[in-house]
Amino acid sequence: MPETPIETPAGPTPPAATTVATGPISQTASIYARLRTAVLELDLTPGERLTERGLESEFSASRTPVRAALLRLDTEGLVRRDGRGWIVAPIDLDEVRAASEYREAVEAAAVRLACRRASDADLAAVLELLRSLSVDDDVEHGAKGPNVHVELARLSGNPFLVAGVQDVVTRLARTRWLDLRTAQSRAQVRGEHQQILAALEARDADAGTRAVVAHIRNTTERLVASLNADRTRFKARGLTIVGEH
Predict the structure, then answer these.
(1) Strand ranges (DSSP E) for the chain?
(2) Are residues 85 and 96 in the same domain?
(3) Per-position pLDDT tens, the chain of length 245
(4) 3-class DSSP state for residue 79?
(5) Which residues touch 39 (CB under 8 Å, ≥6 apart)?
(6) How many structural domains comprise the chain?
(7) Is the domain of 147 the same as that of 96?
(8) Does 193 lie in the same domain as 81?
(9) With contact defined as beta carbons under 8 Å apart, do 179 and 226 qualify?
């Protein structure tokens, strides 16, 4: 599969760093951020091949920062080694199932703690974030929707739960874009988020746990069914989907 070029913003080339310490680190961060965005927004499609040499040319960079950026993306499950090169990680439906089980445990724990620890002002801030998401805008939902789950985890006051939720929603970000293709699915997600927040406002940990688990399961079932049904069409668009049939 041909490599997809990544647009480089127009403008003068920034001056070279004056020290070895800051130059490669800054360049690595920039390459990582741009590759990560391209993968999460499906500009680089699941299964697409990448080469270090091609990325060196694309970013006008040496191999060291390119490889460092790829290794960081590898730890996030977004790319993986493929022989002597790299590929964008395929969407793995078995991994989606496993991630769903993990989310149920972590997010249920976060909701229980949030019911005890979150202030009314904290809950109002998350509710405002939810209200800001338009059901008519799939791009906005895809980009900002995961923040609702991260902010809910933050209400727990436990940084380990926050990190766990942040990691798993990152790994599932590409599937979220595919799940939110219709206004109906976006409206369903929004309604489920509102149920979770209503339980938190009532300080009802049992209702909050039921709501977040139901939301995760509904999202997973809807997504897996959609990807299984449309696997051939997605393959024609260059998206590699593996796992469950």
Answers:
(1) 49-50, 79-82, 85-88, 91-92, 241-242
(2) no
(3) 444 444 433 433 333 333 334 455 689 999 999 999 899 888 898 889 999 999 999 999 999 999 999 999 999 889 999 988 999 999 888 999 999 999 999 999 999 999 999 999 999 999 888 888 765 554 444 455 568 899 999 999 999 999 999 999 988 888 877 777 677 888 888 899 999 999 999 999 999 999 999 999 999 998 888 777 777 776 766 677 788 76
(4) strand
(5) 73, 78, 79, 88, 174
(6) 2
(7) yes
(8) no
(9) yes
- Examine residue 131 and state whether it is found in any structural domain, yes or no: yes
Give which of 152, 148, 150 is closest to 114, Cα–Cα.
152
Determine the residue type at 99. Answer: A
Q: How far apart are CA 165 and CA 135, in angstroms?
A: 23
Q: Would you say residue 82 lies in a domain?
A: yes
Q: End-to-end CA distance of the chain, in Å?
A: 24
Strands 241-242 and 91-92, by their bridges, are parallel
Closest CA to 31 of 51, 6, 13, 11: 6
- Cβ–Cβ under 8 Å, residues 21 and 12: no
Domain range enclosing 50 = 22-89
Single pTM value for the model: 0.72
- Contact between residue 65 and residue 103 where contact means Cβ atoms under 8 Å apart: no
For residue 90, give both structure tokens. 């395929």
What's the DSSP call for residue 19? S
